Please model this.
Amino acid sequence: MGVRLAPTDSGRGTTLWQVERWDADAVGWVRRKSGLVSPGGHVFRKLGVASYQTTEHLGNAILSAGWTRILNLLIGTGSTQAMDATHTRIGVGDGTTAVTTADTTLTGSTNKYFKTAAGVGTIGAGAGPPTTTLTISATFGTGVANFAWQKFGVDFGTTDGATEVAPLLNAAVSNQGTKASGQVWTATATLSWT
Model:
């Protein structure tokens, strides 16, 4: 006779944050080669230009306002906007204050900048146990977000800028260094739900 295990209740959401960086020399070469003034991370990769540094941070807090948005989308409440390439941004800030689920902004950030998503990836099953992932990517050009990147978040804004647009879905604290003028950095958030 075998052992029968009872099903367990579970539910978890987390984010793998990845930051790719290209210096001013790489940016100049890609601009000349592609003819683009503001090449995105996908252009660097397509031309075979590796980032000089890529870092990752696993973890975040799904904020209360983010959960409310998710649940409203599930039940089709009102005019709740879904995430798409024109209604999703990745934000970075220089704050180091610990994240709480009650946060509505990149708390503690003197400098912050939100960039519209270059693409909102495909939702699909991942490897292993039932997992669904969503990948969001935004490229921060040479003239924006030139400060210490220490806090990250995703919101539902439609234009680039320094102001959060409610709701802020998630947030994490992770020191990624300081972006300098002339550099291009791409931030990618892969949200996983299990």
